[in-house]
## 1
Amino acid sequence: AAFQYAKRIRIDVSLLLITAVSSFIASFVGARIVSIINSDTLKPLILIILILIAIYTYFKKDLGALKTKELSKRKQMIYGSSLGLLIGFYDGFFGPGTGSFLVLSFVVVLGFEFVTASAYAKIINCFTNISALLVFISQGNYLLEIAILMAISNIIGNVIGANMALKRGNAFVRIIFLIIVSLMIIRYAYDVFYK
C-alpha cells in the first residue's frame, strides 16, 4: 500500500522523513518496554479512545474531505515529529489501531484530506512495524509460519485497498475508516468485558 500511495500521491519528503525517523525510534523503545510491562492494561483506554474517534469522525461529515490547514514548514516538522514519537511508541508497545490513529492525526493535526493522510500513514507504519519487528525477532518472540501467511494476506489486502482508495477518493476512505474503527471497538469491548 505504501508503494501504491507513493506513486500516486504527492509526498513532502522532509515531513515524511522526520515523522518516519521519530516513529522508528519510538517504536523501538515501545517494543523494548512491552517485555517489561503488560500491554493488556491499555485495552480499556484504547477502547475509550476508539469510541471517541468514531463519534468525532461520524458527526464531522466534512472531516478529511479537503485540505483544511496551511501550516508553516516549521510547524509541520514539529507536529510530524511529535506525532511520530507518540504513535510510534504506541505501535511498538501495543500496536492495534496504529494506522487509524496515524490517519486521523494527519487529518486533524496537519489538516490533510483522508487519501493523503492514508498515504503518509501507510509509509510511516512500515517504519514503525520494521522497528518493532527487529526487537521481537531479536528476542525470539515470533511465529514464522503464521507471520509469513499474515504478511502475504496483508500485502494483497493493502494493494487492493490502496487502489480502491485512490480511485474512489476521500468520502470512500472516510466510510472505510469508520467501519474499521467500529470493528476495532467491538473487538476491544469483547476483550475488556468478556475475557
Note: Residues 114-138 form the longest helix (25 residues).
## 2
Amino acid sequence: MRPASRPGFLRVAQRECHWLFHDRVALLLIFGVPLFAFVVLTTVFSHPVIRGLGVTVVDEDNSDTSRALVEYVAASPSLKVVDRSGTLSTAVQDIRSGKAISAIYIPPNFERDLKAQRRPQVVGFYNQQFLTPAGVASSGLSDALSAAAAVA
C-alpha cells in the first residue's frame, strides 16, 4: 500500500514545478507562447501615431493657390504627397496598388472660383478598407484645408 501524500501548499507547488520542468510542451505553453505574444504585440504597437500616409494629388488648376494648398497638405505630419498625377484614373490606380491611401482632386478654375467666393469643392478619396489610416488621412486633409483657408 502506498503512503498517503503529505498535504500542503508547498508540496503541491513542488509537485507542479517538477511536472512542469519535465514536460517540454507545458513549458513552451506557459513561458514560450506568452513571451512570443508579448514580443509581437510590442512590435505591432510600437508606433502609436500613424504618420506619412501616401497621398496622390490631382491638380487640374495648377494655380498658385492650388500649389499652396498642396504645400499645406505636404506639411501635414500625417500625410506625404507621393504623386502628383494628372488624372483621376492614375490616382485610383495609386490607391488600388497601395502606393497611396488617399487622393485629393483640385478642380479646374479653383483659384478663380475661390476669389469669386463660389466655394469650389476639393474632393478627397480614401481607401476605406483600412479604417484607421483612412480616418487619419481624412483628418490630416481636413486640418490642411482649414489651415489653407485661414491664410487665404
Note: The CA atoms of residues 28 and 34 lie 9 Å apart.
